Amino acid sequence: MLRFLLVLSCFSLLLGQAQAQNQLAAALTDSGSSVSPGPAAAAPMVYLVAEEMPSFPGGEAAFTKFLRAKIQYPAAALNHGTSGKVHVSFIVDEQGHILDPKVVKGLGFGLDEEALRLVRIMPWWSPGKIQGQPVKVVYTLPIVFRALE
């Protein structure tokens, strides 16, 4: 009987964190605000990094538990013994909603679709914050699939 293991890496954005924080500080200093005042205001800015990054309610352990409970490993991936990472990018808005999920690097054999399905059914996240205010933040989540025999 085939068994599978889902391994999750939530910290894909930690690489280059110091550089990203420096860029964020420079952007905040230069712009002062992410939205222009007035009725003709542009759409709110979507940040690549925030002082407080978005997070799954309950943290990484709750996230792993959620994924393990909800995953449906595709038969095509099991039959082909396909394992690896599917990178899903999405926006966490000011209320914690997940917007516009898309696969940025996939594996095929149904794993891309399964990763998207999992992201779409996730509960609301805690939003990212800058200067204590919730903001839209782009988040890229690598989901690692491993088929074990």
UniProtKB/TrEMBL annotation:
It is a single-pass membrane protein. GO terms for cellular component: plasma membrane protein complex. PANTHER family: PROTEIN TONB, PROTEIN TONB-RELATED. It is found in: Cell inner membrane. The keyword Zinc does not apply. Residues 58-149 form the TonB C-terminal domain. One of its GO terms (biological process) is transmembrane transport. This is Protein TonB. SUPFAM superfamilies: TolA/TonB C-terminal domain. It holds the Pfam family TonB_C.
